[in-house]
From TrEMBL:
Superkingdom, taxonomy of origin: Bacteria
Protein name listed in UniProt: O-antigen/teichoic acid export membrane protein
Organism (species): Paractinoplanes brasiliensis
Alphabetic keyword roster: Membrane, Transmembrane, Transmembrane helix
Membrane spanning residue stretches: 7-32, 44-69, 81-102, 108-128, 140-161, 167-187, 199-224, 236-260, 272-298, 310-328, 340-358, 364-386
Amino acid sequence: MTKASTGIGVAGLAVTAAGVLTNLLGYVVPLIGARRLSAADLSALATILAITAIAGVAGTGLQIAVAVHRARHGPSSVARSALLTVLVIAGALAVALPIAVVVLRLPALATVLAGISTVGVVAAGRWLGEMQGDQRFVPLAIGLSALAGGRYGGVMIGLAAGLGLTTALLLGAATAVLVLPVLHLLARRPGVVAGGQPLAARAVLTAGGATLGMLVVSYADLILARRFLPFDASGAYAVGTVLTKGALWAPQVVTIMALPRLAQADRRTLRVALALVAACGVLLVSGAAVAGGLAFRLAGGPGYTSLGRWAPIFAATGAVYGVLFVLINAQVAAGARWPAAPLWVCASGFALAAWLVLPHTLPGIAYGALGTAVAALAITSVLVGLRLRASVTGPRPEHATLSIE
């Protein structure tokens, strides 16, 4: 095994571990809350987390846009677009959160503190994107872990100590902001001078829109199940979506590591990324087919074991979305104008079909979700194929050498 392949393997493991840690901490917060908060405060916490998760998508969009720009143009100015993104999100939260407080009957101070934490998470996207674009994946993994700790650590400590919802969110806001200098130091490269073309705000908007589209289409079935199924069936469906999200996010490391090369028009990287994500999906779907009952039992408890026959459908939906999201990121990296359009079209079609056509049963919504994923993948595949065929012919760019630090 070569030194380069060993370095890539270590980097991949580090990024994977950081992703697992982030998702784990995100699950632990409501689990602790369920044991330490009243029912009213727990409901408020869940609602606040949902609102801030949606707003936090801007941070992921900023990270993707910065990473693509950095990989394509090298060190260049991104401060203006990053600051504009943070200010826009802060302004949007300043307008939306008071409305949410009134309409959803949320505690005002706790909601404001969660908003401050979200602004910190969005700001972090700049430095995470710089590390990703430079293909410095080990520092990126450290940064992702630090951000996860800042985002959730203070809240977890406050809840575990029984300090109440507002104090826990105060600690969360403090840790989310304090982690930003750490990310700045991780991303800093002494002696490297920024120059060249600055990052356009439109690129951040495009990447953010694509990220939001991916979030909406992958959660549409859960929302529709809540709307159209009886409460017990929608609860069972929620357990099934744990398998969907597992199959979707398991190969996330491939997309993270491939994005800088995709920005450099490396077609081989696109083929390899698609093959790896598809292979991961096949393994997970096969596992769900063989041990579906066990999968449902692990996801929701022994009361859901009997639903194991539907496990492959949920896993297949997540696996298809995993491949789709590689293509969406490739479109963003290539500068496509509306990369998320197929996602919004298919999500709208799914909602209409659920209202008019689909059986209002667990398998009815599940098969509808799988059909939506396949349709979005087919449309995006055609668009990617057309873009590749229309690209200027000529010698392929030299493959950039991965810099593993």
